[in-house]
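[agent] plan:
  1. take the single chain provided in the ticket
  2. run structure prediction with default settings
  3. attach structure tokens to the ticket
  4. add a short note for the reviewer (M.T.)
[agent] executing step 1
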Amino acid sequence: MIALALDIGEVRVGIAVSDASGSVAMPVKVLPAQEVLSCARTFRLLIEDYEPDVLVCGLPQTLAGEEGPQAARIRAAAERISRTTNLPVAFTDERLSSREAKRILREQGLTERSMRGKVDMVAASLFLQTWLDEQR
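[agent] step 2 finished; step 3 output follows
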């Protein structure tokens, strides 16, 4: 089972994908949010290339584990993408994934400026890996 993760932000969407066995998550790329939300050609090509079986979207939750203020917006966007791509959608907690992604990128020697486009896809791979581990 191949899962495609979406870290849906207001400006960008980080994208990660699992391997065919559904064991390992890998960052793929970052696209402008509008391209993903409108299922533009760039996003459709990713869907065609990876042929995912499921979309996994990070859902912002508070530290107490409740859905955060952006959760309704993310749910609505994910459902729209799901309908357009004809793929089922699952949601997973994305708490602290961006913070962890920044820490990982800093350890690799990237500056704040150079990590700007990479944080979202690394965050997507982190919460996708957690979701994959929970599925096993």
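[agent] step 4 note for reviewer: The chain has a mean pLDDT of 92.
[agent] ticket updated
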